[in-house]
Structure prediction request, 605 residues.
Amino acid sequence: MIRPVFKRARLCLLGLGCALLWSASAAAWVDTEVTADSVVLEVDQGGSALVTHQILLRIRGTSFKAFTVAGIDADAELQPEATLSRAVSGQAAGPAIPMATARDNDDLQLTVANGGHISSGNYALHFAYRTNLRARGLIAADGEFATLRWVGPRAENGIDSARVLFRLPHASKIPQVPAAAAAGDQVGILAENDGVFLSDFRRADDKDELEVIRPHVAKEEPVVWRVQTDASVFGFAFTAASGAKPANDTPTPVTTTARDRLRLADLWLVLCTGLSFGLLLWWKALLVRAATTTVGVVPRPLLPWGIAGRALAGGFCVTLTTAVLLLTGLPLIAALPLIVAMISATYLTPLPVVTRRGPGNWRNLSDPRVFATRRGPKVPGGLLDVGNPLGFCLFIAGVAILLVVATSLFVASAARGACLVTEALALIPVFFTGRAAQLPALPIVRARPLLKSLYNRLHRDPDVQLSVLGRFPQGAKDPDELRLMVLPQNPLLGLGAIEVACEIQHSFAGPMAVPVVLVRAVDGSPSYEALPHSVVWSRGRTPNERACIVRPKIPSVGATVVLLRQLAQMLCSKRPIARSKPSSDAVPAASGGPSRKLVTKPVTA
Prediction:
């Protein structure tokens, strides 16, 4: 009894150790997210600037110890007042916690002083450093103006709001962002980094303040902030009074910016996707019409607008889907026209044309090749049919090409990549509806596989006899219908045959063969009386013959085999009967057959 106790103790200690390790690792988990970055850039006339950062952090975890700012100025002279404090509504509202600073190339490492750590919450991180923009070539003359450039730090996961307040020496000309200075408004679009900047100007006694806001900064994006002010502020003498020709008077060549190229690419994407899908629907409609004409049926499109109407509707809806995704980025709104485009490409199963067949004769077939698979007439449209090998390869290749192109577009524009991935769904009804498998085939073509499976399951059964019946129309060499005849070894008197036929039923997936069992017996014979009262008899091929239809519970090969064996057992005589051919007018006696009271399990009709 001692060893089990020590064994349980060791297991308990092991579980306690794992729990402690897990608790330690969970306690060490920390997640830091930058929600905003506000910078004050105070520049003097010599081009030296004091850069003050206030970064809002959202900290999750209990062991925050350090934070890294990537991409600060190369000549940054750190100031000693780096602090971290609680933030409420984006402003510092708690005691300041000192932070130690250390440079690592162009990264700044800020660590909680004295080896402490911070718990979860919102915090404001303050630090400052000095840099000389003019010595680094970031202040340059541009005619009557001087352009000041400054590159902000990179955000690991992007920022939804970045703000820089430029404090410049007082000048006669109002400082503005370059594009706003040319357009005369307060919003500038900088072609250098293809971003949108909002600006607001305020003038003090000895300073000019220009606040520039970037609504969104992408992941790891180095934002270039640019401001134009009076050239005399920094001692540049390029003015109109000095006799030099201002740079603004020089004709500027017209060039295509990156945003213009992006808009042109989006326009081409919208037009190409809509036109391509419309032409694809036109081609599909022509193929479906040719295939249905070959078989002799009428196509059934889900949207009965004609070929041109469906092609125009599908192309327009795909164009609208692309435009909505590019302009709004809302997939739920774009899903509505995409559904209409998929409806315009969908085809239902065509209904067969019911015709009355002519007279024919039934014959016994002994050739085993009668079950050989013979396909119907070849119909066009295989290139847009996923059931065809060429169509399947074309569908896979088309989807693969769309995914490759979408992956490459995701790098430049996630919206354009999402457009192609979403519109790939419209190819599903093109390749999966209007197929050759949905066209009605000859009953004998559908019946061969089913009857062959039943024959293979029953031909080794010693209690039944099998034969194949074929119906030959007058003057025809090939049968137009096949049936499997099953008889017990010792049938009851009056039993004509147990036949398995095939019914063609139509569903959304296409026509399918369903097995049906027919029992033929002489009226009033023991075979007629052996079946339950629930069976409904009708007149057969002769005046004295009666026939009934019995269906399996499940239209499958296995259920049909079980039903045939039950019928063979019910219609089997317990003693051999004479093999003499009975008269067609005589009704056999009822002796020798099982009583109707012996039927314990009724046959499901």
Observations:
- The CA atoms of residues 360 and 476 lie 9 Å apart.
